[in-house]
Amino acid sequence: MHATPLSIPDVVLFEPKVFGDERGFFFESFNQAKFEAAIGRQVTFVQDNHSRSVKNVLRGLHYQIQQPQGKLVRVVQGEVFDVAVDIRRSSPTFGKWVGAVLSAENKRQLWVPEGFAHGFVVTSESAEFLYKTTDYWAPAFERSIAWNDAAIGIEWPICGEPALSAKDQQAVLLAQAEYFT
Fold it and tell me: Of 120, 114, 134, 126, which Cα lies nearest the Cα of 74?
């Protein structure tokens, strides 16, 4: 598995070595030792999540202000544009974002550490999205930052308005958001 830190180096893109032939393919989707070596620290995952969304659905930008979750995300059907926004006030990359295309075809995974808001938009007809988290879902601590906050300036690969949940329609701008120190 090849690990590449992105322009915000705490966010890491993982690309597996895939073995395939006319019968199908095989790849190692997770190896604790290799993962921890790539990100430079120990991590315990406590929850796996699976979502399915249709084209132009945008989920995010989500985070938990308490019980923050690190997320290892991947797509097993379809394609998404996945985004991480640094919301650690003391970070030199506070308010900056990085994004990557994740798909069933490229089999990439993205590590989004604690202290980041996370979101994705579906760019295929539908997508199934899997992710491991380092803490449990805690709805009382869940927060959302507006997907289109001009101060962040995410370049989403969509035309028109995305389909948002009611929660994401109420998301606040980064300037009004709770963030990490």
Answer: 120
pLDDT tier for residue 159 given thresholds of 50, 70 and 90: confident
Compute CA distances 14 → 10, 27, 179, whole Å. Answer: 13, 12, 26
- Active-site amino acid positions: 62, 131
Euclidean distance between CA atoms 147 and 60, whole angstroms: 7
Phi then psi dihedrals of residue 97, to 5 deg: -130, 155
State mean pLDDT over 2-6.
Answer: 96
The domain limits of the chain are 2-176
Give tens-digit pLDDT for 84-119.
999 999 999 999 999 999 999 999 999 999 999 999
If we measure between CA atoms, which residue out of 100, 105, 101 comes closest to residue 77? 105
Distances (CA, A) of 160 to 148, 152, 163: 12, 18, 10
Residue 53 near residue 129, CB atoms below 8 Å: yes
Q: Which two tokens stand for residue 75?
A: 């797509």
Domain 2-176 listed as CATH 2.60.120.10: yes
C-alpha 28/C-alpha 74 separation (Å) is 13
**175 φ, ψ to 5°?**
-60, -25
